[in-house]
Design a protein that fits this description.
mainly alpha, 2 strands
Length: about 475
Protein backbone atom coordinates (compact mmCIF):
# COMPACT_ATOMS: atom_id res chain seq x y z
CA UNK A 1 0.00 0.00 0.00
CA UNK A 2 1.25 3.49 -0.83
CA UNK A 3 2.04 6.31 1.55
CA UNK A 4 0.85 9.88 1.31
CA UNK A 5 2.07 12.90 3.26
CA UNK A 6 -0.59 14.81 5.13
CA UNK A 7 -0.55 17.93 7.27
CA UNK A 8 2.72 18.61 9.12
CA UNK A 9 4.49 16.00 6.99
CA UNK A 10 2.85 13.03 8.75
CA UNK A 11 2.75 9.97 6.52
CA UNK A 12 -0.45 7.97 5.98
CA UNK A 13 -0.69 4.49 4.52
CA UNK A 14 -3.38 4.64 1.84
CA UNK A 15 -3.89 4.12 -1.88
CA UNK A 16 -6.13 7.18 -2.05
CA UNK A 17 -4.09 10.41 -2.23
CA UNK A 18 -6.92 12.56 -0.84
CA UNK A 19 -7.43 10.37 2.23
CA UNK A 20 -4.55 12.02 4.09
CA UNK A 21 -6.16 15.45 3.73
CA UNK A 22 -9.54 14.06 4.74
CA UNK A 23 -8.05 12.36 7.79
CA UNK A 24 -6.37 15.60 8.86
CA UNK A 25 -9.68 17.42 8.43
CA UNK A 26 -11.32 14.73 10.58
CA UNK A 27 -8.79 15.35 13.35
CA UNK A 28 -9.38 19.11 13.19
CA UNK A 29 -13.12 18.47 13.46
CA UNK A 30 -12.47 16.36 16.56
CA UNK A 31 -10.37 19.14 18.09
CA UNK A 32 -13.17 21.62 17.40
CA UNK A 33 -16.03 19.38 18.67
CA UNK A 34 -17.56 19.35 15.21
CA UNK A 35 -21.06 17.97 14.85
CA UNK A 36 -20.17 16.04 11.71
CA UNK A 37 -17.24 13.96 12.99
CA UNK A 38 -19.13 10.70 12.56
CA UNK A 39 -20.28 11.64 9.08
CA UNK A 40 -16.75 12.58 8.05
CA UNK A 41 -15.36 9.27 9.27
CA UNK A 42 -18.11 7.26 7.58
CA UNK A 43 -17.49 9.05 4.28
CA UNK A 44 -13.74 8.47 4.55
CA UNK A 45 -14.20 4.75 5.21
CA UNK A 46 -16.78 4.44 2.45
CA UNK A 47 -14.26 5.76 -0.07
CA UNK A 48 -11.15 4.18 1.48
CA UNK A 49 -12.21 1.09 3.39
CA UNK A 50 -8.64 -0.22 3.60
CA UNK A 51 -6.98 2.82 5.20
CA UNK A 52 -5.53 1.26 8.39
CA UNK A 53 -5.40 4.38 10.53
CA UNK A 54 -9.02 5.26 9.73
CA UNK A 55 -10.12 2.04 11.43
CA UNK A 56 -7.98 2.87 14.45
CA UNK A 57 -9.64 6.28 14.56
CA UNK A 58 -13.03 4.58 14.44
CA UNK A 59 -12.05 2.53 17.48
CA UNK A 60 -10.79 5.64 19.26
CA UNK A 61 -14.05 7.48 18.71
CA UNK A 62 -16.06 4.56 20.05
CA UNK A 63 -13.88 4.50 23.19
CA UNK A 64 -14.39 8.23 23.65
CA UNK A 65 -18.09 7.56 24.26
CA UNK A 66 -17.08 6.03 27.60
CA UNK A 67 -19.70 3.29 27.68
CA UNK A 68 -19.64 -0.50 27.72
CA UNK A 69 -21.70 -0.77 24.53
CA UNK A 70 -19.40 1.54 22.57
CA UNK A 71 -16.30 -0.17 23.97
CA UNK A 72 -17.54 -3.41 22.45
CA UNK A 73 -17.80 -1.68 19.08
CA UNK A 74 -14.27 -0.34 19.59
CA UNK A 75 -13.03 -3.90 19.99
CA UNK A 76 -14.62 -4.83 16.68
CA UNK A 77 -12.87 -1.88 15.05
CA UNK A 78 -9.62 -3.09 16.58
CA UNK A 79 -10.05 -6.53 15.01
CA UNK A 80 -10.61 -4.98 11.58
CA UNK A 81 -7.66 -2.63 12.03
CA UNK A 82 -5.38 -5.51 13.01
CA UNK A 83 -6.44 -7.41 9.89
CA UNK A 84 -5.56 -4.45 7.68
CA UNK A 85 -2.24 -3.82 9.40
CA UNK A 86 -1.15 -7.39 8.66
CA UNK A 87 -1.05 -6.71 4.92
CA UNK A 88 -0.33 -2.98 4.89
CA UNK A 89 3.19 -1.64 5.05
CA UNK A 90 2.15 0.87 7.70
CA UNK A 91 4.48 3.37 9.32
CA UNK A 92 5.88 3.01 12.82
CA UNK A 93 3.67 5.89 13.92
CA UNK A 94 0.56 4.15 12.64
CA UNK A 95 1.61 0.91 14.34
CA UNK A 96 1.90 2.81 17.61
CA UNK A 97 -1.62 4.14 17.14
CA UNK A 98 -2.78 0.55 16.67
CA UNK A 99 -0.96 -0.42 19.84
CA UNK A 100 -2.65 2.44 21.71
CA UNK A 101 -6.08 1.24 20.62
CA UNK A 102 -5.18 -2.32 21.60
CA UNK A 103 -4.15 -1.16 25.07
CA UNK A 104 -7.26 1.02 25.43
CA UNK A 105 -9.53 -1.89 24.54
CA UNK A 106 -7.73 -3.93 27.21
CA UNK A 107 -8.50 -1.16 29.76
CA UNK A 108 -4.79 -0.52 30.20
CA UNK A 109 -5.07 3.26 30.29
CA UNK A 110 -1.50 3.81 31.46
CA UNK A 111 -0.06 1.92 28.49
CA UNK A 112 -2.53 3.65 26.17
CA UNK A 113 -1.39 7.11 27.19
CA UNK A 114 2.27 6.13 27.28
CA UNK A 115 1.94 4.95 23.68
CA UNK A 116 0.51 8.27 22.54
CA UNK A 117 3.32 10.04 24.35
CA UNK A 118 5.81 7.78 22.56
CA UNK A 119 4.31 8.89 19.23
CA UNK A 120 4.77 12.52 20.24
CA UNK A 121 8.46 12.07 20.95
CA UNK A 122 9.14 11.58 17.25
CA UNK A 123 6.04 13.28 15.86
CA UNK A 124 5.30 16.33 18.01
CA UNK A 125 2.74 17.54 15.49
CA UNK A 126 0.60 14.42 15.64
CA UNK A 127 -2.17 16.47 17.20
CA UNK A 128 -4.50 13.45 17.25
CA UNK A 129 -2.14 11.67 19.65
CA UNK A 130 -1.71 14.90 21.60
CA UNK A 131 -5.44 15.47 22.10
CA UNK A 132 -6.08 11.84 23.01
CA UNK A 133 -3.26 11.91 25.56
CA UNK A 134 -4.74 15.16 26.89
CA UNK A 135 -8.08 13.35 27.32
CA UNK A 136 -6.62 10.38 29.16
CA UNK A 137 -4.39 12.49 31.41
CA UNK A 138 -7.50 14.50 32.29
CA UNK A 139 -9.55 11.45 33.25
CA UNK A 140 -6.63 10.09 35.25
CA UNK A 141 -6.56 13.30 37.29
CA UNK A 142 -3.00 13.95 36.11
CA UNK A 143 -3.00 17.72 35.69
CA UNK A 144 0.80 18.00 35.64
CA UNK A 145 1.13 15.28 33.03
CA UNK A 146 -1.55 16.98 30.97
CA UNK A 147 0.37 20.26 31.23
CA UNK A 148 3.78 18.79 30.48
CA UNK A 149 2.50 16.69 27.58
CA UNK A 150 1.65 19.88 25.70
CA UNK A 151 4.71 21.80 26.92
CA UNK A 152 7.02 19.14 25.45
CA UNK A 153 5.71 19.62 21.92
CA UNK A 154 4.85 23.31 21.96
CA UNK A 155 8.30 24.54 20.78
CA UNK A 156 7.84 22.57 17.54
CA UNK A 157 4.62 24.39 16.70
CA UNK A 158 4.47 27.76 14.93
CA UNK A 159 1.81 30.36 14.24
CA UNK A 160 1.71 29.11 10.66
CA UNK A 161 0.34 25.73 11.78
CA UNK A 162 -3.45 25.53 11.28
CA UNK A 163 -4.09 23.71 14.57
CA UNK A 164 -1.82 25.86 16.77
CA UNK A 165 -4.83 27.50 18.45
CA UNK A 166 -6.10 24.13 19.65
CA UNK A 167 -2.66 23.36 21.07
CA UNK A 168 -2.61 26.69 22.92
CA UNK A 169 -6.08 25.96 24.27
CA UNK A 170 -5.03 22.55 25.55
CA UNK A 171 -2.06 24.13 27.25
CA UNK A 172 -4.24 26.84 28.75
CA UNK A 173 -6.64 24.31 30.28
CA UNK A 174 -3.79 22.17 31.60
CA UNK A 175 -2.17 25.22 33.18
CA UNK A 176 -5.48 26.12 34.85
CA UNK A 177 -5.90 22.61 36.24
CA UNK A 178 -2.30 22.83 37.51
CA UNK A 179 -3.14 26.03 39.39
CA UNK A 180 -1.33 28.43 37.06
CA UNK A 181 -4.36 30.63 36.47
CA UNK A 182 -2.63 33.66 34.97
CA UNK A 183 -0.85 31.72 32.22
CA UNK A 184 -3.85 29.44 31.76
CA UNK A 185 -6.04 32.43 31.02
CA UNK A 186 -3.42 33.97 28.74
CA UNK A 187 -3.08 30.85 26.58
CA UNK A 188 -6.84 30.29 26.56
CA UNK A 189 -7.54 33.83 25.41
CA UNK A 190 -4.80 33.58 22.81
CA UNK A 191 -6.45 30.47 21.39
CA UNK A 192 -9.93 32.01 21.31
CA UNK A 193 -8.61 35.14 19.61
CA UNK A 194 -7.21 32.93 16.88
CA UNK A 195 -10.34 30.79 16.60
CA UNK A 196 -13.51 31.96 18.38
CA UNK A 197 -15.17 28.60 17.63
CA UNK A 198 -12.61 26.76 19.78
CA UNK A 199 -14.95 25.66 22.57
CA UNK A 200 -12.21 23.92 24.58
CA UNK A 201 -10.30 27.19 24.84
CA UNK A 202 -13.38 29.23 25.77
CA UNK A 203 -13.89 26.56 28.41
CA UNK A 204 -10.29 26.88 29.65
CA UNK A 205 -10.82 30.56 30.44
CA UNK A 206 -14.21 29.78 31.97
CA UNK A 207 -12.47 27.40 34.36
CA UNK A 208 -10.01 30.08 35.43
CA UNK A 209 -12.87 32.43 36.24
CA UNK A 210 -14.71 29.71 38.15
CA UNK A 211 -11.68 28.90 40.25
CA UNK A 212 -11.03 32.56 41.00
CA UNK A 213 -14.65 33.35 41.86
CA UNK A 214 -15.01 35.81 38.97
CA UNK A 215 -18.65 34.93 38.44
CA UNK A 216 -19.87 38.10 36.71
CA UNK A 217 -16.85 38.06 34.39
CA UNK A 218 -17.48 34.40 33.70
CA UNK A 219 -21.06 35.02 32.64
CA UNK A 220 -19.92 37.83 30.35
CA UNK A 221 -17.10 35.73 28.88
CA UNK A 222 -19.27 32.72 28.08
CA UNK A 223 -22.07 34.92 26.70
CA UNK A 224 -19.69 36.93 24.54
CA UNK A 225 -18.61 33.86 22.58
CA UNK A 226 -21.89 31.92 22.61
CA UNK A 227 -22.63 32.47 18.93
CA UNK A 228 -19.40 30.62 18.11
CA UNK A 229 -19.15 27.79 20.65
CA UNK A 230 -22.87 26.98 20.50
CA UNK A 231 -22.33 25.58 16.99
CA UNK A 232 -20.32 22.64 18.37
CA UNK A 233 -21.52 19.17 19.33
CA UNK A 234 -22.86 18.28 22.80
CA UNK A 235 -19.80 19.83 24.41
CA UNK A 236 -21.66 23.13 24.09
CA UNK A 237 -23.89 22.01 26.96
CA UNK A 238 -20.84 21.88 29.21
CA UNK A 239 -20.28 25.57 28.58
CA UNK A 240 -23.89 26.24 29.49
CA UNK A 241 -23.18 24.24 32.66
CA UNK A 242 -20.34 26.64 33.42
CA UNK A 243 -22.65 29.59 32.94
CA UNK A 244 -25.16 27.96 35.27
CA UNK A 245 -22.47 27.54 37.95
CA UNK A 246 -21.74 31.26 37.87
CA UNK A 247 -25.43 32.07 38.34
CA UNK A 248 -25.65 29.46 41.10
CA UNK A 249 -22.86 31.15 43.02
CA UNK A 250 -24.84 34.40 42.68
CA UNK A 251 -27.94 32.57 44.02
CA UNK A 252 -29.80 33.34 40.80
CA UNK A 253 -31.71 30.09 40.91
CA UNK A 254 -34.36 30.86 38.30
CA UNK A 255 -31.61 31.51 35.75
CA UNK A 256 -29.93 28.24 36.71
CA UNK A 257 -33.13 26.24 36.27
CA UNK A 258 -33.80 27.96 32.96
CA UNK A 259 -30.29 27.13 31.68
CA UNK A 260 -30.75 23.57 32.89
CA UNK A 261 -34.05 23.09 31.05
CA UNK A 262 -33.17 24.98 27.89
CA UNK A 263 -29.64 23.68 27.41
CA UNK A 264 -27.91 21.45 29.99
CA UNK A 265 -30.58 18.72 29.92
CA UNK A 266 -32.06 19.49 26.51
CA UNK A 267 -30.45 16.52 24.75
CA UNK A 268 -30.19 13.99 27.58
CA UNK A 269 -31.90 11.37 25.42
CA UNK A 270 -28.86 11.28 23.11
CA UNK A 271 -27.05 9.45 25.92
CA UNK A 272 -23.76 11.35 26.09
CA UNK A 273 -22.01 10.83 29.41
CA UNK A 274 -20.85 14.44 29.77
CA UNK A 275 -24.47 15.63 29.47
CA UNK A 276 -25.46 13.38 32.39
CA UNK A 277 -22.46 14.53 34.43
CA UNK A 278 -23.38 18.17 33.80
CA UNK A 279 -27.02 17.65 34.66
CA UNK A 280 -26.63 15.39 37.70
CA UNK A 281 -24.02 17.57 39.35
CA UNK A 282 -26.04 20.74 38.72
CA UNK A 283 -29.26 19.28 40.15
CA UNK A 284 -27.49 17.97 43.26
CA UNK A 285 -25.87 21.36 43.80
CA UNK A 286 -29.22 23.10 43.43
CA UNK A 287 -30.72 20.84 46.06
CA UNK A 288 -27.83 21.57 48.42
CA UNK A 289 -28.64 25.25 47.90
CA UNK A 290 -32.19 24.48 49.01
CA UNK A 291 -33.82 24.62 45.57
CA UNK A 292 -36.69 22.29 44.65
CA UNK A 293 -35.79 20.74 41.30
CA UNK A 294 -39.14 19.02 40.80
CA UNK A 295 -39.17 15.86 38.71
CA UNK A 296 -36.01 16.68 36.76
CA UNK A 297 -34.15 13.62 38.06
CA UNK A 298 -36.44 11.28 36.13
CA UNK A 299 -34.93 11.90 32.70
CA UNK A 300 -31.41 11.41 34.03
CA UNK A 301 -32.37 8.15 35.69
CA UNK A 302 -33.78 6.77 32.44
CA UNK A 303 -30.41 7.25 30.76
CA UNK A 304 -28.40 6.12 33.78
CA UNK A 305 -30.29 2.82 33.96
CA UNK A 306 -28.56 1.84 30.71
CA UNK A 307 -25.14 2.24 32.31
CA UNK A 308 -25.41 0.39 35.61
CA UNK A 309 -22.76 -2.10 34.49
CA UNK A 310 -20.42 0.45 32.87
CA UNK A 311 -16.95 0.74 34.32
CA UNK A 312 -15.04 2.70 31.68
CA UNK A 313 -14.70 5.85 33.82
CA UNK A 314 -15.38 5.81 37.56
CA UNK A 315 -15.94 9.58 37.52
CA UNK A 316 -18.80 9.09 35.06
CA UNK A 317 -20.23 6.06 36.88
CA UNK A 318 -20.54 8.11 40.06
CA UNK A 319 -22.73 10.62 38.22
CA UNK A 320 -24.96 7.85 36.89
CA UNK A 321 -25.17 6.63 40.48
CA UNK A 322 -26.24 10.09 41.65
CA UNK A 323 -29.12 10.12 39.17
CA UNK A 324 -30.26 6.66 40.29
CA UNK A 325 -30.07 7.56 43.97
CA UNK A 326 -31.92 10.83 43.55
CA UNK A 327 -34.69 9.34 41.43
CA UNK A 328 -35.39 6.54 43.92
CA UNK A 329 -34.00 3.73 41.77
CA UNK A 330 -32.57 2.05 44.86
CA UNK A 331 -32.19 -1.43 43.39
CA UNK A 332 -30.28 -0.19 40.34
CA UNK A 333 -28.18 2.09 42.55
CA UNK A 334 -27.29 -0.80 44.84
CA UNK A 335 -26.33 -2.93 41.86
CA UNK A 336 -24.14 -0.14 40.52
CA UNK A 337 -22.43 0.32 43.89
CA UNK A 338 -21.79 -3.43 44.02
CA UNK A 339 -20.37 -3.25 40.50
CA UNK A 340 -17.93 -0.55 41.60
CA UNK A 341 -16.94 -2.60 44.63
CA UNK A 342 -16.38 -5.69 42.52
CA UNK A 343 -14.37 -3.73 39.98
CA UNK A 344 -12.14 -2.51 42.80
CA UNK A 345 -10.60 -5.98 42.85
CA UNK A 346 -9.43 -5.53 39.26
CA UNK A 347 -5.82 -4.61 38.52
CA UNK A 348 -6.69 -2.31 35.59
CA UNK A 349 -6.37 1.46 35.97
CA UNK A 350 -10.03 2.27 36.61
CA UNK A 351 -10.28 -0.70 38.97
CA UNK A 352 -7.54 0.87 41.06
CA UNK A 353 -9.44 4.16 40.98
CA UNK A 354 -12.56 2.38 42.17
CA UNK A 355 -10.65 0.85 45.06
CA UNK A 356 -8.99 4.12 46.01
CA UNK A 357 -11.95 6.51 45.80
CA UNK A 358 -14.87 5.04 43.86
CA UNK A 359 -16.24 2.70 46.50
CA UNK A 360 -15.94 5.26 49.29
CA UNK A 361 -17.49 8.06 47.24
CA UNK A 362 -20.37 5.81 46.18
CA UNK A 363 -21.00 4.88 49.82
CA UNK A 364 -20.96 8.56 50.82
CA UNK A 365 -23.39 9.54 48.07
CA UNK A 366 -25.79 6.74 48.97
CA UNK A 367 -25.65 7.61 52.67
CA UNK A 368 -26.24 11.32 52.08
CA UNK A 369 -29.12 10.60 49.69
CA UNK A 370 -30.89 8.53 52.34
CA UNK A 371 -30.32 11.17 55.02
CA UNK A 372 -27.43 9.52 56.86
CA UNK A 373 -25.06 12.49 56.90
CA UNK A 374 -22.71 11.03 59.50
CA UNK A 375 -21.95 7.94 57.42
CA UNK A 376 -21.42 10.16 54.38
CA UNK A 377 -18.78 12.15 56.26
CA UNK A 378 -17.10 9.01 57.57
CA UNK A 379 -16.89 7.55 54.05
CA UNK A 380 -15.72 10.68 52.23
CA UNK A 381 -13.44 12.45 54.69
CA UNK A 382 -10.58 9.88 54.59
CA UNK A 383 -10.35 9.96 50.79
CA UNK A 384 -10.95 13.64 50.06
CA UNK A 385 -7.33 14.31 49.11
CA UNK A 386 -7.32 11.33 46.74
CA UNK A 387 -10.41 12.33 44.77
CA UNK A 388 -8.26 13.86 42.02
CA UNK A 389 -7.42 10.38 40.75
CA UNK A 390 -10.97 9.84 39.45
CA UNK A 391 -10.30 12.56 36.88
CA UNK A 392 -12.52 15.39 35.83
CA UNK A 393 -11.73 19.02 36.54
CA UNK A 394 -11.40 20.81 39.88
CA UNK A 395 -14.77 22.44 39.19
CA UNK A 396 -16.42 19.09 38.48
CA UNK A 397 -14.92 17.26 41.47
CA UNK A 398 -15.90 20.14 43.74
CA UNK A 399 -19.34 18.54 43.88
CA UNK A 400 -17.95 15.83 46.14
CA UNK A 401 -16.27 18.40 48.39
CA UNK A 402 -19.62 20.18 48.66
CA UNK A 403 -21.35 16.91 49.56
CA UNK A 404 -18.78 16.36 52.31
CA UNK A 405 -19.33 19.87 53.65
CA UNK A 406 -23.13 19.68 53.52
CA UNK A 407 -23.05 16.33 55.33
CA UNK A 408 -20.58 17.58 57.93
CA UNK A 409 -22.70 20.67 58.68
CA UNK A 410 -25.57 18.33 59.51
CA UNK A 411 -23.72 15.63 61.42
CA UNK A 412 -20.18 16.74 62.31
CA UNK A 413 -20.24 20.53 62.84
CA UNK A 414 -16.77 20.67 64.33
CA UNK A 415 -15.35 18.97 61.25
CA UNK A 416 -17.50 21.22 59.04
CA UNK A 417 -16.11 24.27 60.80
CA UNK A 418 -12.56 23.22 59.90
CA UNK A 419 -13.46 22.26 56.34
CA UNK A 420 -15.16 25.59 55.79
CA UNK A 421 -12.25 27.52 57.21
CA UNK A 422 -10.23 25.91 54.40
CA UNK A 423 -12.89 26.51 51.78
CA UNK A 424 -13.60 30.16 52.50
CA UNK A 425 -9.87 30.83 52.42
CA UNK A 426 -9.71 29.32 48.91
CA UNK A 427 -13.13 30.53 47.75
CA UNK A 428 -13.80 33.83 49.55
CA UNK A 429 -16.43 34.77 46.93
CA UNK A 430 -18.65 31.77 47.63
CA UNK A 431 -21.77 32.86 49.53
CA UNK A 432 -22.86 29.22 49.86
CA UNK A 433 -19.60 28.44 51.67
CA UNK A 434 -19.95 31.42 54.04
CA UNK A 435 -23.54 30.48 54.88
CA UNK A 436 -22.57 26.90 55.62
CA UNK A 437 -19.65 28.20 57.66
CA UNK A 438 -22.12 30.25 59.70
CA UNK A 439 -24.30 27.18 60.27
CA UNK A 440 -21.31 25.10 61.36
CA UNK A 441 -20.01 27.81 63.68
CA UNK A 442 -23.40 28.24 65.30
CA UNK A 443 -23.79 24.48 65.78
CA UNK A 444 -20.28 24.33 67.25
CA UNK A 445 -21.03 27.03 69.82
CA UNK A 446 -19.50 30.09 68.15
CA UNK A 447 -22.49 32.44 67.55
CA UNK A 448 -20.49 35.65 67.14
CA UNK A 449 -18.22 34.08 64.52
CA UNK A 450 -21.37 32.75 62.83
CA UNK A 451 -22.73 36.29 62.54
CA UNK A 452 -19.49 37.41 60.93
CA UNK A 453 -19.73 34.55 58.42
CA UNK A 454 -23.32 35.49 57.58
CA UNK A 455 -22.26 39.08 56.99
CA UNK A 456 -19.53 37.81 54.67
CA UNK A 457 -22.15 35.88 52.71
CA UNK A 458 -24.34 38.94 52.34
CA UNK A 459 -21.36 41.04 51.28
CA UNK A 460 -20.47 38.52 48.59
CA UNK A 461 -24.03 38.40 47.26
CA UNK A 462 -24.45 42.14 47.26
CA UNK A 463 -21.26 42.51 45.24
CA UNK A 464 -22.24 39.82 42.72
Amino acid sequence: MARTAGRYGLAYTTNHPDSAVRFDDLVSAYLGFGRDIGDQLKALLADDRDMPLAHVAKGYFFKLFGSAAMSERARKSLVEAERLFESADATDREHLHLEALRAWCADDLDRTTDTWEAILLDHPKDVFALRLAHFNHFYAGEARKMRDSVARVLPQWTDADPDIGYVHGMYGFALEESGDYARGERFGRMAVERNPKDAWSVHAVAHVMEMQGRHSEGIAWVNRHEADWSTTNNFRFHLYWHRALYHLERHEFEQVLSIYDDYVASDIASDMYLDVCNAASLLWRLEMYGVDVGDRWKGLAEVSMRHVDDRELIFVSLHYLIALLKSGETEAAARMAAQLEGYANSAVAQGRVSARVGVGTAAALAAFARGDAGTAVDALLPIRYDLYCMGGSHAQRDLFEEVLIAAAVKARPRIARRLLAERTALKPRSAWSWRNYAAALRADGAPEAALDAERQAETVLSAA
